[in-house]
Amino acid sequence: TTGGNVGIFFVTPGSSLVNKPVEIRGFGYTTPASSNTVSFNGATATVVSGTSSSLLVTVPTVATTGPVTVTNANGAATSPQAFKVLVPPIVTGVDPPNVPQGTTSQLAIKGFNLNNASSVQFTQTGLTATVQSGATDNVLPINVAVTGSVPPGSYAFSVTTPSGTAQSGTVKVT
Fold it and tell me: How far apart are CA 143 and CA 19, in angstroms?
């Protein structure tokens, strides 16, 4: 939408993680690029570069999903669609934390933003995870198969969702 002599046609990509670059296409942007104030749902962004029709900005760390606005000497404009801030998964624990060698066990990964997980990957050969149905935002059920050749110890895993990957979980093989 437009306000005066400035407008936003679109923001690309339309969703992103924080601290990533996005481009705002429109008209009436001023030079130098830093003379344009850009905000994501009220959070001020850093303008990296720009022309009269394009601004390259960094999504602020405190951004939330909502409209993007550009304000300068020509006026103010709001994006036609909300910009979606992607939040990667956060792993806070595993229940139970131990799995025996040579078995398949059901575990529950606990944390945040887990409900759309597509995979769980272990760094150790011989450990395989399968995502099960019934995931919620805070609990991700998985089956973990542990071959008999995996030595006892703690092994890291990662959880991948459409919003990113968390590499902060561990399982102890006993």
Answer: 34
